[in-house]
Amino acid sequence: MDIRPNHTIYINNINDKVKKEELKRSLYALFSQFGQIVDIVAMKTMKMRGQAFVVFKELAAATNALRQLQGFPFYNKPMRIQYAKTDSEVIAKVKGTYGDKEKKKDKKKKALELPSSLTKKPAVGSAAPVHSPAVQVPDNPPNYILFLNNLPEETNEMMLSMLFNQFPGFKEVRLVPGKHDIAFVEFESDTQAGVAKDALQGFRITATCAMKITYAKK
Q: Beta-carbon neighbour count of residue 25 at 10 Å?
């Protein structure tokens, strides 16, 4: 029997040697390109080793991620992805299907809606979309090597490779020892590098760090 589509996808066959926090960050970096992630559940218990759940806000994002990343070599093991059997508790709470009584539902809904109504004017900057290409990054002439900066401290080679190897012509990522916030990504041609640069400009690996991408100086 097919499991019906839902907001939560279930991933298994994950390399269980990866530390839990690094695993969650890498899953976020890989899956957040498809849409807003509400929660990631990864546990290191014997029963849950090598497995994780990713909860998306939108159903379409979950479907897209499942199709695009099926069999993706994640830490050298192909991921197996399917829809989770039941809606995640997080989504159930948002939908109001979690808890029996109507009053409880209303209270939960109000609690969920409150923070957004309390937020002040958009001057805070929280209203900015995930991709903020409006920020014009001064650039160099086209080059097959891209220069990334404003990367969060926890960035690693695996995360960046997963983001960039979805683009044709990707060759390698080079981190700079002692400098966590910058990296270089090499492509086969400057045209292919340009496609990746435009697509991932302003991509947020974490909520606070929007990646800045320019062509590397020749």
A: 20
